[in-house]
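Researcher: I'd like a structural prediction for the single chain below. Treat it as a standalone chain; there are no partners to consider.
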Amino acid sequence: MTSVEFQVTFDASDPGALAEFWAAVLRYQVQPPPPGFDTWVDALEAMGMPPEMHDARSAIVPLDGATGPRVFFQKVPETKVLKNRVHLDLRAAPGLEGEERMAALESECARLVELGAERIRRVEPDGLDTGWILMTDPEGNEFCLD
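Model: Treating it as a single chain, here is the predicted structure.
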């Protein structure tokens, strides 16, 4: 049986800005334009896309040689109102425990806040849980550092 390829899709008010944020968070790159085009504007114009639609979509992909899913951002008219039913967990401290783990999460949290994320709360390790930090991206989508 073959594996299933997938991408993660975000609805967004500003797909380009959200793509730039998540590219920095995940250490990805904004997807380059198709071969034969120097810029996305050149490609979109050649495809007949009207200028008012040039900011309707964006995507990020792993850096050359890295693996991971494509992340797609699409413009939608409504804003986010409720808690996400699905969210990303960023594994910022794999293999670490206790204070060493929480220090690594705090360090990554500080980097993400610099990029535009918001820290919501920290959950301490308690025996059942290893501890994590809840955050939101610039458009309010929740994600966890764990």
